[in-house]
Amino acid sequence: MLAESTEMRKQSSILRKQYGFLLAESTEMRKQSSILRKQYGFLLAESTEMRKQSSILRKQYGFLLAESTEMRKQSSILRKQYGFLLAESTEMRE
Questions:
Q1: What is the DSSP letter of 21?
Q2: At 12, phi and psi to the nearest 5?
Q3: Coil, helix or strand at residue 94
Q4: Which domain of life is it from (predicted)?
């Protein structure tokens, strides 16, 4: 009976140590979980902001592309007019 009591005390001591270890581990995991939730919130907000900026940049790109196309058309018209005026000026000199 004495041997059983000693064995039970050993087992109890082992279980208390395991419980203490698991409790410390659980506390650390809760801290890490809290940190990860905060990081996730930050990254989510950053991702949302980046999507907004991307949308703005796409619109600006579309506007600039349309403006560039219009400028090329105008440039082509001006080159033709210049060519016409140059030819007309040459004819007038002759």
A1: H
A2: -65, -40
A3: coil
A4: Bacteria
Token pair, residue 76, equals 């082509």
Residue that is written with structure tokens 């001591």 in the block: 13
Tens digit of each residue's pLDDT, the chain (94 residues): 888 999 999 999 999 999 999 999 999 999 999 999 999 999 999 999 999 999 999 999 999 999 999 999 999 999 999 999 999 888 888 7
Q: At residue 15, what is the residue type? A: L
Task: Give the pair of three-digit tokens for residue 80.
Answer: 């033709």
Q: Is 86 exposed, middle or buried (0-12, 13-18, 19+ CB in 10 A)?
A: exposed
* CA-CA-CA-CA torsion sign (47, 48, 49, 52): positive
Question: In this structure, which amino acid lies at residue 57?
Answer: L
DSSP SS3 for 1: coil
